[in-house]
Specification:
The chain is of the alpha/beta class. The chain has twelve helices and 15 strands. The chain is globular, with a radius of gyration of 22 Å. The mean pLDDT is 95. The structure holds pyridoxal-5'-phosphate.
């Protein structure tokens, strides 16, 4: 017994196991520009508490049951109403599935569609967690070149035609068309139509990730790709993370019955439905205070974006460029090509500033070393100015300016 060897779990992991993640990677900066959080000071805690109280007194005893596999029906009805009102999407509540944030749904779709070696199309730089999940699933990821209007249709068509010619028709196009993460642009209506035309010609489903759409503080709303789709090839995910709080873990998926039926099974075997306790509160809150709350939030986020941009202008000089997003929670910083922002990420964190280097978002896993995503949702305007100054001092010590 005494000489018993410890089991070496690293040797018996399944081929689907994700890479190891150290706790140190979770460290946050005082000036936290790394993650797209909303403003902590304006979280609607009183509204949520009142909504939870109402929900529990109305239906609390139902917590004794396992929830509906697609999630709390009244919240799905609210999602259906909101998508009609805000995104011109006609969606029956039976076509909605609630989940632990929208990332859980993205992950499920990848599990349902992608086998090792399957080709998947994304934007050239896109949400890092979706890329990680695609890589774990063995996807062959192809990033399409983008400009300020979104994916370039000529490049999209070329990439797809090339893959089809090799008998590798892509299984999925994953896009973040509104306040694209990390690039910040919103895909124009023309580009959305062009994307849909190409995808329908080649019969490739689209997963439209509209996580940030409610956070528009200027410019015109652009219709959801889902609302333009006549062939049922567009699946859609949205979230309450950016309008209420990510800690609630509540997102939604909309898709065709063939896929929803699989979601029902996935949810059933993972304990059925989604956290009903949170759903009761979110539903009551969404029906009463959410719209006013988002209006308040937009004023705060716009000020913070403006502060970040103004301080970058004062301290970063003409060597750097950045996007000016009309909404969302981040901007995309571009330094001269010779700069490697991966190398200084750790040092920046030690100086108190967190950011994510461009390579984390690169579909090809290598480009973007001179880019970074800077989020402006979490810190106050004063902190944002200070944090950008700290970053500017570090970058000038490194000779980047
Ligand atoms: C583009 C995009 N999609 C999805 C998510 C996942 O959000 P959640 O799972 O909290 O809904 C995020 C989170 O930052 C994101 O940036």
């Amino acid at each position: 017994m005494e000489n018993k060897k410890l089991i070496e779990f690293n040797k018996i992991l399944s081929k689907h196991a994700p890479p190891f993640r150290d706790r140190a990677e979770l460290e946050r900066g005082k000036y936290d520009f790394a993650i797209a959080y909303p403003d902590p000071g304006s979280l609607p805690l009183d509204g949520l508490l009142a909504a939870l109280k109402d929900g529990l007194s109305d239906e609390g005893q139902d917590l004794a049951l396992y929830p509906d596999v697609q999630g709390y029906a009244p919240l799905r009805e609210y999602v259906s109403y909101k998508l009609k009102r805000d995104r011109a999407m006609t969606v029956d509540p039976e076509q909605v599935v609630l989940g632990d944030g929208s990332s859980q749904h993205i992950s499920t779709i990848i599990d349902l569609l992608i086998d090792n070696g399957d080709a998947v199309i994304t934007e050239d730089f896109c949400y890092s967690n979706s890329l990680t999940k695609l890589r774990i699933s063995g996807a062959d990821i192809h990033g399409v070149r983008c400009d300020k209007s979104g994916m370039k249709p000529d490049n999209l068509e070329m990439v797809i035609a090339d893959l089809v010619a090799q008998d590798k028709r892509p299984k999925l196009i994953y896009t973040i068309p509104t306040f694209q993460n990390p690039q910040g642009w919103t895909m124009t209506l023309e580009r959305r139509k062009a994307l849909l035309d190409i995808a329908s010609f080649y019969e490739i489903p689209i997963l439209e990730d509209d996580c940030y759409v409610d956070l528009r503080f200027e410019g015109d709303n652009v219709p959801a790709i889902h609302s333009l789709d006549l062939t049922g090839q567009v699946m859609y995910v949205g979230s309450f993370s950016k309008t209420i709080a990510p800690g609630l873990r509540m997102g939604y998926f909309v898709g065709p019955e063939e896929i929803i039926g699989r979601f029902r099974m996935v949810r059933k075997i993972s304990g059925s439905g989604v956290n009903e306790f949170a759903a009761l509160a979110i539903h009551r809150y969404a029906m009463s205070g959410l719209d006013d709350h988002v209006e308040q939030l937009l004023k705060i986020q716009r000020d913070r974006r403006d502060t970040m941009i103004a301080t970058l202008g004062e301290t970063f000089g003409s060597n750097a460029k950045w996007s000016t997003p009309e909404g969302g929670l981040y901007l995309w910083l571009q330094m001269p090509e010779s700069v490697d922002l991966n190398e200084v990420t750790k040092e920046a964190l030690e100086a108190g500033v967190g950011y994510q280097p461009g390579t984390m978002f690169a579909a090809d896993a290598g480009s973007g070393q001179n880019y970074a995503r800077l989020c402006f949702g979490y810190n106050s305007s004063e902190e944002i100015s200070k944090g950008i100054e700290v970053l500017s001092d570090l970058f000038s010590q490194k000779g980047f300016f």
